[in-house]
Amino acid sequence: MTTSFAPLANDTFLRACMRQATDYTPLWLMRQAGRYLPEYKATRAKAGSFMGLATNVDYATEVTLQPLDRFPLDAAILFSDILTVPDAMGLGLSFAEGEGPRFAKAVRDEAAVAQLAVPDMDRLRYVFDAVTSIRRALNGRVPLIGFSGSPWTLACYMVEGRGSDDYRLVKSLMYARPDLMHRILAVNADAVAAYLNAQIAAGAQAVMIFDSWGGVLADGCFQEFSLEYTRRVLAQLKRSGVDGQPVPRIVFTKGGGIWLEDMKNLDCEVLGLDWTANLGQARAIVGGAVGGPGKALQGNIDPNVLFAPPEAIAAQVRAVLDSFGKPHTDESTTGPTHVFNLGHGISQHTPPEHVAALVETVHGYSRSLRKR
Amino acid sequence: MTTSFAPLANDTFLRACMRQATDYTPLWLMRQAGRYLPEYKATRAKAGSFMGLATNVDYATEVTLQPLDRFPLDAAILFSDILTVPDAMGLGLSFAEGEGPRFAKAVRDEAAVAQLAVPDMDRLRYVFDAVTSIRRALNGRVPLIGFSGSPWTLACYMVEGRGSDDYRLVKSLMYARPDLMHRILAVNADAVAAYLNAQIAAGAQAVMIFDSWGGVLADGCFQEFSLEYTRRVLAQLKRSGVDGQPVPRIVFTKGGGIWLEDMKNLDCEVLGLDWTANLGQARAIVGGAVGGPGKALQGNIDPNVLFAPPEAIAAQVRAVLDSFGKPHTDESTTGPTHVFNLGHGISQHTPPEHVAALVETVHGYSRSLRKR
User: Fold this and answer.
1) Could you please report the per-residue DSSP string of A173-195?
2) Which among A165, A175, A219 has the least Cβ separation from residue B305?
3) Interface test with B, best of A35, A99, A212, A219 (most B CBs within 10 A)
4) Cβ atoms of residues A320 and A301 within 8 Å
5) What distance in Å separates residue B257's CA from the closest CA in chain A?
6) Count of A–B CB contacts within 8 Å?
7) Which CATH number fits domain B12-301+331-345: 3.90.950.10, 3.10.450.710, 3.20.20.210, 3.40.50.150?
């Protein structure tokens, strides 16, 4: 364990996560290291496969830093996949070209569920090594975010064996054998907690739980099968990093805007929102007053905005910043804050120069918003 | 035009839509005539293709009535497709086996948009003939629901040319050229209104607007590009049918539960909800008090519940009925009512005997709920 990382030159993202006043609204982009960047494609080609890229510390470091060299983003996020944990459980993850992730073994019956266990974290050493390598390479430019899929989201893939458009198998198991589903989710939650704690120990300065498929659950089931296990993860997470600084915890449930009242009391610092949510309404529910408790909000522009011309992108960015309203500016206390992001991962078809227009507008307009 | 239809033997569905007290909670199932029924598959095989089935009055009548012969459902819904209107606009609809709908011509530029016009309703005569034929064949057993896709949902397919998982093309057009998108939506709204009015004239006793893709829009865009045009359709609809009875109008936005406050003032009688919404919370927002204005609610069980064993299905059905709470029972006035349905179309993989369990529990349990 090392604590010899460089001091942070830009802590705007971490401050906003902790609901502290900032001069402008920090931003990063979900999947910011990815296929829309030609330099990413070049590294990916050298690596030979997606997992070849994710498991190689040098390549993972290289691609994580690529978007920062193009755009003045306020955070980096570990380059990895949400399915590394079930892979380490022995399910055999692979990525067929153009087909998305697939598991060699799906978990669909009592016997398969009985075999599940929290994997030895040594099997995920390549991830933790990448975290340390990236943090070193960042050299204090911006903070590094670690992440994992949520217990429910991992379960979707583990039961379906691959992506799904109706979640028939995982929901069938959930409705028919809730006992088995709870067992899968308990193992997943403890595994995710251990995984994120190891990322924190390796140098991650914030962690994010991607509940990418929480939004496909019915009301009632979301609370029982997704939220409850996110809560179980959060309860086990370290609160400070290797440098003794607080490590903010971000929870993002795609399609979860309808359940903000339920998520209000989650023990985390930041809630991520997709584009269907109104940031002003969300702020009223979970943002809290100046000086009081509350959560920071992260989000939530539609990634498809990036296909419009730069002027249209700027207008939509301003609309999202306006919908949150003016973040608090009281240096002496905490209050409502906003971390700008997309409402979902950036599309591989995005023109990189359009991202530049977005970043510039977020920084420029959010500074002007604070002066009103 | 004929008004010689048989009187209704079961008006429970229509009464519930109009917020009148009923002895039990009526139900029907989205896509109740479909591939999960072997008798449907037999008729479909005779017809040769999906459009061959939809455009043949006798086949369309036959499949519409099939689920009613198996289950004591409280309404029938016209067998057709949501894309008949853009097909009539000349876009060339086809269904490739196992691939979903596809248009020969996509609408992606100014020239294509300029050519769009409300189609001659004579091109949709096969739909109206089917409505009249089905209503005659029903002979008053239950009411017949007509339907259309919403202006936005039709636009998604018209611009994408087929189904999409990211709506990149339609959203790119929307963000880059909102003027063109508004023009498409205005034509669609007027076409949908004419189409639904012709279905009402042909004998439809209720109409439903399927905003299947409204939920993919960002907050703000939903209100501007979907809801506003649903409103434009509703404003043009006939309020009574060929027999002089009121024709309730149902609006269903998949993923729209987050926008109930916006939909509260729509000029329609019923709001459909998917399974992410809590019926009790929705009732508090839009259901209205006994004796006051408000909307009936339709929905919202997860269709995947039907893959669980019958006892588990019954428990989930009771939970959905309980989440709405006791419908009002005051015969002298209007008040909160519930029409049971799925939150989305039934899966083709559903065992038909599981549907029987669902129907039986809805009827039985909802009667007992009223006696408490």
Assistant:
1) HHHH-HHHHHHHHHHHHHHHHHH
2) A175
3) A219
4) yes
5) 7
6) 102
7) 3.20.20.210
CA–CA dist B299, B79 (Å, integer): 19
Burial class (CB in 10 A: 0-12, 13-18, 19+), A89: buried
Catalytic residue flag (residue A122):
no
Domain A12-370 has CATH 3.20.20.210: yes
Supply the pTM of this predicted model.
0.96
Annotated active-site residue in A11, A74, A81, A87: A81
Tell me the ipTM for this assembly: 0.96
CA angle in degrees (0–180, nearest 5) for A198-A201-A205: 105
Distance CA B254, CA A259 (A): 16
For residue A166, list chain B residues with Cβ-Cβ distance below 8 A: 304, 347
- B11, B81, B87, B274: which one is catalytic? B81
One-letter amino acid for residue A47 of the chain: A
Q: What are the φ/ψ torsions at residue B275 (nearest 5 degrees)? A: -70, -10
Residue among A69, A59, A72 at smallest CA distance from A37: A69
Is A157 a known active-site residue?
yes
Token pair for residue B146? Answer: 């007509």
User: Are B323 and B273 spatial neighbours (Cβ–Cβ below 8 Å)?
Assistant: no
Q: Distance between CA A199 and CA A127 in Å, rounded?
A: 8
The DSSP call for residue A334 is: B
Annotated catalytic residue within B31, B108, B141, B231: B31
**Beta carbons of A301 and B167 less than 8 Å apart:** no
Contact between chains at A168 and B349 (C-beta distance less than 8 A): yes
Handedness of CA B288, B293, B294, B296 (dihedral sign): positive
Q: pLDDT 10s digit of each residue in chain A, 372 long?
A: 455 899 999 999 999 999 999 999 999 999 999 999 999 999 999 999 888 999 999 999 999 999 999 999 999 999 999 999 999 999 999 987 777 899 999 999 999 999 999 999 999 999 999 999 999 999 999 999 999 999 999 999 999 999 998 999 999 999 999 999 999 999 999 999 999 999 999 999 999 999 999 999 999 999 999 999 999 999 999 999 999 999 999 999 999 999 999 999 999 999 999 999 999 999 999 999 999 999 999 999 999 999 999 999 999 999 999 999 999 999 999 999 999 999 999 999 999 999 999 999 999 999 999 998
